[in-house]
Write a structure and sequence with these properties.
With 181 residues, the chain is α+β, with helices and mostly antiparallel strands. 34% of the residues lie in helices and 30% in strands. A 5-stranded antiparallel β-sheet has the order 1-5-4-3-2. Strand 4 and strand 5 form a beta hairpin.
């Protein structure tokens, strides 16, 4: 009996925590999902940061040529569009539930850069499952289960945070790293 009581005290709260819906960062003006930040990197020029941003896109995405929609070295601005696949585990099998598209807006100045990641949309892809598309809405009346919809949102959040970490790692470099190659 004591073991059962411990189970209910510790396990049930964990289950309810893990089943809660995820909340995205919502822009107060547009109402859209937007991940953004400004990173100070003193002693780095706009040109160095622009090159590192291009390097990051080339390394992070399969085809940077297809991803970059706009790049202007003079203004220090790059706009790229990307996608990533999402899946859901059903009865022990991983099922394709489409992909999420998004836009990255990178701007660089001497000593700092800004990233804005936005325009998130879920597409059903090759999956026959119909998607509501807009990741801000609650699951209602679509073919995806609520658990699948929450899983898609959690995958999106994890992928975007991994993307941001990768960007930080690439942009924050020591200028002399390749000096003696």
């Amino acid at each position: 009996m004591k073991k059962l009581l411990i189970f209910f005290i510790f396990i049930l709260p964990i289950q309810s925590i893990s089943s809660q819906d995820f909340e995205f960062p919502i822009d107060s003006i547009s109402g859209e999902i937007v991940y953004s930040g400004i990173v100070d990197l003193q002693d780095l020029t706009r040109e160095e940061l622009f090159l590192k941003a291009n390097e990051w896109i080339a390394n992070y995405f399969k085809s940077s040529k297809d991803v970059i929609q706009f790049a202007d070295k003079e203004s220090g601005k790059i706009i790229a569009k990307g996608i990533f696949d999402v899946n859901y585990k059903v009865m022990g099998m991983i099922t394709d539930v489409g992909y999420i598209s998004f836009t990255i807006d990178l701007s660089v100045k001497d000593g700092k850069y800004r990233y804005i990641i936005k325009d998130f949309w879920h597409h059903n892809g090759s999956s026959a499952i119909k998607s509501p598309g807009d990741l801000r809405i609650e699951k209602s009346g679509f073919q995806l289960s609520k658990k699948a919809w929450v899983s898609i949102k959690e995958q999106m959040n994890k992928t975007v945070n991994d993307l941001i970490s990768s960007l930080y790692d690439t942009m924050d470099f020591d200028k002399d790293t390749n000096a003696d190659w």
